[in-house]
Structures are given as C-alpha cells and as structure tokens.
C-alpha cells in the first residue's frame, strides 16, 4: 500500500514550482531498505532502494537529473495465483530512470505494457520533464485497466492502490487537501511552510470510511485493519506493516531539484519510531 500526490505546471511563474510531489511508502517494517541517496550504479539518480534478497536494486520512487521520475504503487485485492514467481516490480522504476537502452518514455511504456503480466499487480506513474512540457503517463496491470499507457494532464492528481479511475476515499480526500496546500503555500518563498504542510498531509491518520472500493479490495482483512488502512498514514504493529517512509520532490521553475525523505530507523518500532531525514539536491539537465 502506498499513496502519491502530484502537482505539475508546464509554465510556472519564477517563484512557483514546476513539480511538487508527496508520497508515502507502506511496507513491511522488516524489509531491508537503503535510504534515499545518489545511486552507486548511476550517480544521476536519487531515490531509495530495496535490499530484499532477489529484489536488490529495485525502487518505489526515484528521480534522474536527466528529467525522469518513476513512482510505483501496488494494486491490492487482485487475484494472483503465485505472486512469489513474478518479477520484482521495483525494477520498473529502476529501469525507467536509469534508461540504459536510451528509450523514449513512450517506447519504455509500450514494452512495459507487453510485459506487464510478468509482475504482481501495479500502478506505475512515469514523468518525463522537458523544456517545453512535462509528460505524465499512468499504466496498470490491475484487472479493469486497459493495460495501455494513458497520458495524464498537468495539474493536481492523486494515486493509490486501486486501479486508476477508481480511487480510494483517502486518495480523493488527500488530493483535495494537497491542492489546498499548494494554493496557499506553493511558492519558493514559503518553501519551509510548504514542506511542513505536506509532511502533515503524509502523516494524516484520519479514517476515510465508508469506502466501498477499499472495503471490497480488503474483503479478506479484519475490520480493524481496513479502518487503519483507510488512513493516509497508518500502522498495524501486530502485522509488522505500515507507513514507514515519507518522500517529497520539489522542482522550481529553473529546474533546481530538492529530494526529501523521512524514513523510520531500523529496527523499526512503529509505536515510537525514530525518523531519519535526508535532503538531496541536483539540477535537471533536461532544462
């Protein structure tokens, strides 16, 4: 379970942002992870990395100074006969941002559309930033989605763990609050306030029930867990699972990038976590 909020503007004023991204990673507390940093295999890339055996090097969110951002979200509640036999989904992000084959975004997503059946259910949001415009696409291999990449317009959007077009209530409520934050504080003069407001959004633990889509997808979970998961930020200590990482990306009108991450320090105590905070900067070479 993860959540993503995204705001983009092709022609921002000098004191506004071209891109504002805020995201939570929900994952097992024991899954080994490398904190967000510049990658050893490609120093142009910033992001966290999965260290799970057999999945090493995958990612859920990463940015390349070449102007690419990839975000991966699982699709919950799908019927998957043998999930352990499928490829690691995190490599979808890694392959897109590193781009060893020098493929266009369109060509990469075309290939992913053909190979989507090899992965457990996912939503993938790809972003390509060029001088003229920001190209955003979404693709999902979840049941009910066309499996064909779809263009997404600029503006304020949100994604979660249902197929695009059928958002959970927490995604809709979070997107509305995200939009209000940007309208009130989305300029470079208010950067510190903007960051604190976005962090407050990512830590929002209000339940958003009833939610037919969420409840249908989590029909096998006990009601207590469904109620917890209906919040943007949640913890289920007895399952060893919950929100463990907050991430933000800010890109100003001049292409200056700030990548911020807050992640729980290992070993994780979800009832009293210690948060590690990092901030990395780079300049987009694509602008």
Describe the structure using short key phrases.
single chain, 34% strand, alpha+beta, Penicillin V Acylase, Chain A, 287 residues
- Give the low-confidence spans: none
Instruction: Please estimate the helix content.
Output: 10-25%
Strand count, sense and barrel status of the largest sheet are: 7 strands, antiparallel
Kindly report how far apart the N and C termini lie: 33 Å
The CATH architecture can be named as: 4-Layer Sandwich
Quaternary assembly: single chain
Anisotropy-based shape: globular
DSSP strand tally: 14
- Specify the CATH class: Alpha Beta
What is the CATH third-level topology name? Answer: Penicillin V Acylase, Chain A
Calculate Rg over CA atoms: 18 Å
| Series of H and E elements | EEEEEEHHEEEEHHHHEEEE
Structural class: alpha+beta
Query: pLDDT average, as an integer?
Result: 97
The number of helical segments is: 6
Strand residues, percent: 25-35%
Could you say how many structural domains there are in total?
1
CATH superfamily: Penicillin V Acylase, Chain A
């Amino acid at each position: 379970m993860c959540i993503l909020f995204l705001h983009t503007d092709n022609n921002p004023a000098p004191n506004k942002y071209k891109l504002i991204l805020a995201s939570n990673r929900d994952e097992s507390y024991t899954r080994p992870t490398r904190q967000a940093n510049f990658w050893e295999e490609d120093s142009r890339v910033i992001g966290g990395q999965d260290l799970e055996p057999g999945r090493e090097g995958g990612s859920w969110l990463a940015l390349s100074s070449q102007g690419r951002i990839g975000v991966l979200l699982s699709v919950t509640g799908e019927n998957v006969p043998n999930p352990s036999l499928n490829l690691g989904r995190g490599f979808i992000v890694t392959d897109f941002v590193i781009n060893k084959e020098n493929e266009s975004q369109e060509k990469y997503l075309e290939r992913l559309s053909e190979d989507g059946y090899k992965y457990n259910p996912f939503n993938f949001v790809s972003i390509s930033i060029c001088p003229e415009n920001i190209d955003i696409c979404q693709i999902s291999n979840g049941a009910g989605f066309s499996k064909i990449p779809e263009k997404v317009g600029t503006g304020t959007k949100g994604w979660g763990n249902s197929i695009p077009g059928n958002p959970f209530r927490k995604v809709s409520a979070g997107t509305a609050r995200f939009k209000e934050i940007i309208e009130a504080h989305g300029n470079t003069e208010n950067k510190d306030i903007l960051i604190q407001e976005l962090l407050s959004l990512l830590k929002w633990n209000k339940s958003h029930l009833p939610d037919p889509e969420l409840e249908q997808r989590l029909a096998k979970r006990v009601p207590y867990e469904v109620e917890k998961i209906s919040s943007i930020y949640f913890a289920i200590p007895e399952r060893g699972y919950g929100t463990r990482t907050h991430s933000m990306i800010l890109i100003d009108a001049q292409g200056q990038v700030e990548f911020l991450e807050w992640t729980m320090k290992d070993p994780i105590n979800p009832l009293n976590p210690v948060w590690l905070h990092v901030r990395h900067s780079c300049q987009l070479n694509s602008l």
